[in-house]
Structure formats: C-alpha cells, structure tokens
C-alpha cells in the first residue's frame, strides 16, 4: 500500500479526533450518549470550534480520497508526487484543525485553501 493510500485512512479518522476534543472540552459524560449530536450542538467556545472542524473534516475527506484514487488510476503522476501531495494534505488538515481550535480564523481559512489546492493538484499532475 502506498503512503497516499495510508493518508486516506488518516483523513478518515481525523474528524473523530475533533469529536474527542469537542466532547472532552464540553464535559461529555457517558450518560450523555443518548443524544451525542444534541450534546455537540449545545457546545460553545473550543467545543463548538472542534465540532465545526469535525464537520468540515467529514466534508473534505471524500474529495481527498477521490483525488488520491484518481491519481493512482490515471497512472500519469509519479508515485512520489502522489505521496508527497498526500502528506502535505494531511499536514494542511492538521494545521487547519489546530488553527480552528486556537480560534485563528485567518490561518484556518488559509489552510482550508491550501488543502483544496492540494486536492486540485492531484488532478493536475494526473493529466
């Protein structure tokens, strides 16, 4: 398996990291598990930002996975290029999450654009 394919697996689990931060920062208890989405919707501050980062991570992961798979299937890009782009994408997502949690909106948005640019780049290098 390539590094890029492992990065897809990492991207799949990043939202759950955000969920954990949201729940812990919001004082989540197991008894709250009957309505976890309601609990997450009630959060403020750090917990609310962590939940928003979770939702955005769920939104972008399919596009990243598709881009990696397309790049593999097209066969025109060097494997090292696909792997580097994948690691850069995961790095941009980690920074996105960190900036979101730290309430650094401009840097967060910059990392979102970087990540989207990296997704586009998979298609560009596959031509």
From TrEMBL:
SUPFAM superfamilies for the chain: MAPEG domain-like
Keywords carried by this UniProt record: Membrane, Transmembrane, Transmembrane helix
GO CC, alphabetical: membrane
Cellular compartment(s): Membrane
Cross-referenced InterPro entries: MAPEG-like_dom_sf, Membr-assoc_MAPEG
Main location: membrane
Name assigned to this protein: MAPEG family protein
Source taxonomy: Bacteria, Pseudomonadati, Pseudomonadota, Gammaproteobacteria, Pseudomonadales
């Amino acid at each position: 398996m390539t590094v890029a394919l492992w990065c897809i697996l990492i991207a799949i689990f990043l939202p759950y990291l955000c969920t954990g931060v949201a729940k812990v920062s919001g004082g989540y208890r197991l008894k709250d598990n009957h309505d976890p989405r309601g609990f997450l919707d009630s959060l403020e501050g750090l917990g609310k930002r962590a939940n928003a980062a979770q939702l955005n991570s769920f939104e972008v992961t399919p596009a990243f996975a598709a881009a990696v798979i397309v790049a593999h299937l097209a066969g025109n890009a060097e494997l090292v290029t696909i792997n580097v782009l994948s690691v850069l994408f995961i790095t941009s997502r980690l920074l996105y999450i960190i900036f979101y949690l730290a309430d650094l909106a401009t840097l967060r948005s910059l990392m979102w654009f970087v990540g989207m640019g990296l997704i586009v780049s998979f298609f560009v290098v596959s031509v």
